[in-house]
Amino acid sequence: MPSSSSSSSSVVAALEGILLKDPHPFSYFMLVAFEASGLIRFTLLLLLYPAVSLLDFVGMRDIALQLTVFVAVAGLRISEVEGVARAVLPKFYMDDVNTEAWRMFSQHAKRVVVTSTPTIMAESFVKEYLKADEVVGSELVVNRFGFATGFINKDVGSIAERVAQLFGDEKPYLGLAKSNGGTASSFLSLCKVRAHAPFTATHKHPREHPLIRLQPVIFHDGRLVKRPTPSTALILLLWIPFGIIFAIIRIIIGLIIPMWAIPCGIAILGGRVIVNGKPPPLRNHTNGGVLFVCNHRTLMDPVVLSHILKRRIPAVTYSISWVSEILSPIPTVQLTRIRHVDAEKVKRELRKGDLVICPEGTTCREPFLLRFSSLFAELTDRIIPVAINYRSMFFHPTTVRGWKAMDPLFFFMDPNPAYELTFLNPLPTESTCSASNNPHEVANYVQGILAKALGFECTNFTRKDKYRLLIGTNA
């Protein structure tokens, strides 16, 4: 291998226990098991945790890792593991980043990360968010049909050998690892300077590389809200049977009781709805209805809005499952994404009465707003912005990669979902297209005032950007 010209300003850092606070990667394998396979594998891996911990305690870390890897991925399509690594793991990795170690790591021109997990699990996050040049981890054995066997490839060489190959005749300048970090810290002997937590200024290279901004994770997927550490995973598994019963009861009650009584039912069954601002009263719709423009957090946004207003307001939708369609207590208007066809549909509904639309076109879980489609601004000047936030304890109710028919079940399974709606003032005429404003300017203005009300950030990302990142498609 050719030597690195930047080795005098290079760093090799362990991922677990250094760049991440948690030295144990077990919870990330739990995520792979749950999101790529399901509850059975998730439960089996949790039952294996005492044996893994014992092997690790007696110094048999390699065997503990091999056992964990086998149970977590054996028989899975490697594309499924890649999908979880790209769409699910980055959010949980980011929440666990050690900013002190990150600052030191980011000051060097050449950055290499060593992980005790399979490279495929960490590579997407480490390269995209930590801006590493290379990732060195274990390599999974994949059969000719594209399935992971669960075994680790022993022919690629040791961690230390592979790090040495990256630098050729030179030595990396700084090594960041725990001295007792096992195989993942074996590269330390190659480094000119070795640093251990807590890190201090004396370990910094004299010529610092410009600090790279640690960018947030805006798009992520998966059902679980919290990283499934063994204790969290156990609580989750114990709750699921009760959660399913709870969800069925909530769905039945939501379908049979009158709209005006639903807010009381939500409170009795553990949910919370917080309303800020003054909801508009019911008005005569002889001249058409108003358009409620909302940011999009879950598939239930328009339903909750209808509950607060105590009337069934139709909602514009882009793609919901047939199960959600059947269970929906409000009418839905399916758009085609053919602009002139959709415009006519929305106009027709507005002539009948009020309508709800989420111009982002897809949900966003993080405190960001995606770019608003300008279609709504072209169709009416009677616009009421509504800022929506949602918090859950266990489950995300909507996913991109998951089975959408399960979305309502996961929403109602959460023990304590909380919605917060903020009704803003109707958009003044001078801020609408009827005052000769450009539709894109109106859409951006509405996006901005909603973001301000929520304390969120506006972005230029679109629905296509989200799908391209999470599943590699523009769907």
State the separation between the terminal residues, measured CA to CA. 41 Å
Domains counted in the coordinates: how many? 2
Shape: elongated
Strand order of the largest sheet: 3-2-1-6-7
Average pLDDT, all residues: 88
How would you classify the helix and strand content by structural class? alpha/beta
**Uncertain segments:** 1-7, 201-209
- Number of DSSP strands? 16
Determine and state the CATH class of the largest domain: Alpha Beta
Radius of gyration computed on alpha carbons: 26 Å
Number of helices: 18
Using the coordinates shown, work out and report the CATH topology of the largest domain: Glycerol-3-phosphate (1)-acyltransferase
Largest sheet: 5 strands, parallel
Helicity level, as a percent range? 40-55%
What percent of residues are in strands?
Answer: 5-15%
Q: Specify the CATH architecture of the largest domain.
A: 3-Layer(aba) Sandwich
GO molecular function: glycerol-3-phosphate 2-O-acyltransferase activity; phosphatase activity
Pfam families: Acyltransferase, HAD_RAM2_N
Subcellular location: Membrane
Main location: membrane
Describe the structure.
With 475 residues, the protein is an alpha/beta fold. The chain folds into two domains: 7-196, Rossmann fold (3-Layer(aba) Sandwich), CATH 3.40.50.1000; 257-471, 3-Layer(aba) Sandwich (Glycerol-3-phosphate (1)-acyltransferase), CATH 3.40.1130. Helices cover 40% and strands 15% of the residues. The chain contains 18 helices and 16 strands. The strands form five sheets. Strands 3-2-1-6-7 form a five-stranded parallel beta sheet, sandwiched between helices. α8 links the parallel β2 and β3. α2 runs antiparallel to α3. The longest helix is centred in the middle third of the chain and has 27 residues, at 230-256. The chain is elongated. 40% of the residues are buried.
